Amino acid sequence: MDIVEMLVKKFTPWRKESLLFRNDRPRRCFCKLFEVRHNDRIIFRKPSRQDTKRFEATNAKLLVAHMSKFKNIIEFHKILSSHIANVHVTGFSPSSERKYGNQKKVLAQKRVRRMLPNPGFENVNRITFLAAAFANDDLGPPMFVFHGTQLFIRRISRSGGNEKCSECISELLPHESLVTARKDIASVDRANFMKCAALLLKQTEEKKSTGKILLIYDGYRSHPDIPILEMLAKSNVIAYVLPANTSGTTQPLDIAIFQSLKYHYRALL
After folding, report:
1. Domain that holds residue 23
2. How many domains is the chain partitioned into structurally?
3. Which tens digits make up the pLDDT trace of 124-175?
């Protein structure tokens, strides 16, 4: 079966459309009406390997099975909504922002100091966010992983240094945020995930006295590590590992948290 991806330039992501499919593709009449209504053109292409894996892991049969297991675990252990947390990871590439057509808008370059109030990093190719959200809207401490060998968290004033300098990143990020950098790729590895899990356990010490905590996260290769699972088990936490790239289906973190954070981060830059 061919998996297709619909690309519409002017179609806002929060706008929903009811797709009519025939042989796993939208019907031609729908495509024509869509193009006329939005004054745009629909392009079909084969998705990336990550999108294909996400499609295979998030089919209705698998998701229904996981939701049924969630229900049984919650009812058996009598877990409160304040004790159910979903961990999700997303990426952001500020240096790929486009401006003035196809001209690339460079926010920061390696070994180049820009006299602007921008956070200066050795290389700002990609930023990865990791955060945990509880079912009662409580938030866990987020982690920010930058691409580079080291971080230069500074702010250069426009007036030539007369103004007081401040750490721009610390002003933007929430309290107790974890900030780190990786040389090869800006992703959450085992060590970083262990740090984030330890900080989350420290934050939920009071909750653990009133019942078990259900922690849901995806099975990316660095996440279901045995030391991490052992640390969670010793802390009265039930770890439920979903297939990779599926944790966003349990709670709308991408819409509620990450999208607004990316918007404000982009506006600040």
Report:
1. 5-45
2. 2
3. 567 788 888 888 878 888 888 877 766 555 544 445 554 444 445 555 566 6
Are residues 19 and 36 both part of a single domain?
A: yes
Give the number of other CB atoms < 10 A from CB of residue 251: 20
Amino acid at 4: V
Q: Collapsing DSSP states into helix, strand and coil, what is residue 242?
A: strand
Q: Is 263 buried (19+), middle (13-18) or exposed (0-12) by CB count in 10 A?
A: exposed
Q: Helix axis angle, 226-234 relative to 190-203, nearest 10°? A: 10
E runs forming strands in the chain: 5-7, 21-22, 25-26, 43-45, 84-92, 127-134, 143-147, 178-182, 213-218, 237-242
Q: Which among 144, 162, 142 has a CA at the least distance from the CA of 153?
A: 144
Q: CA-CA-CA-CA torsion for 50, 56, 62, 64, nearest 10 degrees?
A: 80
Most confident residue range from 46-55, 64-73, 241-250: 64-73
Whether 130 and 188 have beta carbons less than 8 Å apart is answered as yes
**CA atoms of 20 and 17, how far apart (whole Å):** 10
Q: Please say whether the beta carbons of 38 and 17 come within 8 A.
A: no
Q: Structure pTM? A: 0.60
Domain shared by 131 and 237, yes or no: yes
Same domain, yes or no: 174 and 225: yes
H or E stretch covering 248: none
Do 68 and 32 lie in one domain? The reply is no
